[in-house]
Amino acid sequence: MESQFGIANVWIQGDFVTRATAVLLLGMSLASWIVIAIKALDIVKFKRLARETHAFWHSEDFAAGLGKLDASAANPFRHLAIEGREATAHHRNSQAQLHDHLDVSDWVTRSLRNSIDEFTARLQSGLAILASVGSTAPFIGLFGTVWGIYHALLAIGASGQSTIDKVAGPIGEALIMTALGLAVAIPAVLGYNALVRGNKHILSSLNSFAHDLHAFFVTGARVRASGGAGSASVIPMKKG
Question: What is the pTM assigned to this prediction?
Answer without folding.
Answer: 0.77
